[in-house]
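Researcher: Structure for this, please.
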Amino acid sequence: MPSYQQQKSGNWKAIIRKKGYPTQNKTFTTKAEAIYWAEKVEALIVDAVEGTVSEKLPEGQDYPFPELFLLYIGSIQSRLKRPDKEEGYIRRLLPYLKNRTLLTLSPIDLEVIRDTRLKKLTGTTVRKDLLFISRVYTFAIKTLKVTVDNPIKSLHLPSENLPRDRTATKGELNLLLANAPDRMKPIFELAVYTSMRRSELVALNWDWIDLNRRIITLPDSKTGQRVVPLSEAAVQLLSALPMRPATVVFPVTPDAVTKAFSRAKKRAGLRDIRFHDLRHTAITHYANKGLTAPQLQVISGHKTLSQLNRYCNLKAADVLCLMD
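Model: Predicted structure, token format:
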């Protein structure tokens, strides 16, 4: 059920919270307007869940982007391994599209959005955001039966940046840990010991860990089920944590990990490193120890050597000692 809050200004804010969907809120002059909007949006969510949207809505109907995003997420929710990724696109793009509709968004509008975001973000990030908008248009055309041209098709997309090859030095890792909150330090360390992804770390359950056999069995990682081998350091770290069967090891959200890492790196004076670079760091570290490509694939979970090579960031100096 929607909730309603009266503001100090006298206006009314309607808030809609539903599991599996981004929180929606909007402010109105009267409570009646807030109730009307909230009931309309909530009905759209219910229709999306039940799969009855295309049956109820007339062909050609226009949609404000906030409502359209809800319908899109509802239609694909059950098929996604990482629904939070699609929701992340919505959070980033909604400030630019909250007053736009499906039929009124033009290529010129998108050019402005593209160029504005390119001032602060990489070409790869902006390109992915625009391709997300394209997927939403495809959904509207095929599922909602709206007759509309996809404006992304006439837009020049930014080029992708070169793959990142940033790894953290031992000194940088020590600085990050020294400036990280206590509850986040084990997550940062385990990322370096195992090369596990952020999504895998926050989903990690004690029932998946076998410290005697030194393995973690991930039932549903990005590449399907996989088994992660544990170094002695990783075993010691996990052994020191309070174990609670059938519960997650780290009860935090992916977004909380990213924000904690960002604050830690700022306090440490590090500017150009991201949490995902710890995965690069781990794989490169094990490559430096002399592990073969197939052995590295067991650790990283990559299915192909081309994927692995993007994360194994060896330099010429790293192989000199193996050549003599």
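Researcher: Any notable elements?
Model: The two ends are 70 Å apart (CA to CA). The beta strands are 3-6, 12-16, 24-28, 209-210, 215-221, 224-229.
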